[in-house]
Carbonic anhydrase 4 (Muntiacus reevesi), 308 residues
Amino acid sequence: MLILLASLPPPTESLPFPISSSHWCYQIQLKPSNYTCLGPDEWEGSCQNSRQSPVNIVTAKTQLDPNLGRFSFSGYDRKHQWVVENNGHTVMVSLGDEVSITGGGLSTRYRAKQLHLHWSKAMDRGSEHTFNGERFAMEMHIVHEKEKGPSRNTSEDEIAVLAFMVEVGSNNVNFQPLVEALSDIRRPNTNTTMKRSISLFDLLPEEESLRHYFRYLGSLTTPTCDEKVVWTVFQEPIQLHRDQILAFSQKLFYDHDQSVNMTDNVRPVQSLGQRQVFRSGAPGPLLSQPLPTLLAPALACLTVGFLR
Ligand SMILES: [Zn+2]
């Protein structure tokens, strides 16, 4: 067998369909790859099905769901020097096993696995989801897996992704350890460790704003686009300085030769079809107060009533 293989013509160049043809890529990589990779229109697996992500969220058409309450974040405050990887499609931070979420209308606990981002050089082209047709500079995804109960059935909510828009703003010092790590992972399949510790909360908007979000059922936004994601898209964007956003496109490359900058790693918006997008219950002024503040006057009234 080995002798036979050795006598075959060298692979790739001379073949009309090189071995790499089955590998997926973003639209922007098609031309530099001489159209040898599969662009979004040709992605395989479930990618051409009808419950796909990302989608455009038309806020006026979202439906209020009072069951979509606050999340409870566990381990999000843990400071750590995370490992950061260029995986050829994005920059990915592995999150170990100690970070999880409950609440937020989810059926059970979900454990965080990794976070990654999508971006562009253009400040209005880098997010995957859009709000009323408007794209943001970047989008960050924190990917969680459902904690396995007795049943191991595959379901439409096996994965919970928390999505955060990123917009241009003032310099975000909390993001800097991640931005600085990019210089060490320019090439695909390389990784590094952050020089300083950060927590997930360091990367997010104010915790108080996280009660406002959109919810729908969809898919992974990369092949094989499995339709098993319960999406949470937060209303409040993260703010990064323009230079921090541009660092992703400038430092990272799709290819080993560093000829194609990693940018526009964004899947086009998919049709919402028959699906409904929900929004979290907008609390009135009373409900936005912490519980003790609500209880104290109530208890006082009770006491007064009792004394009478
Ligand atoms: Zn993503």
The chain has one domain: 27-307.
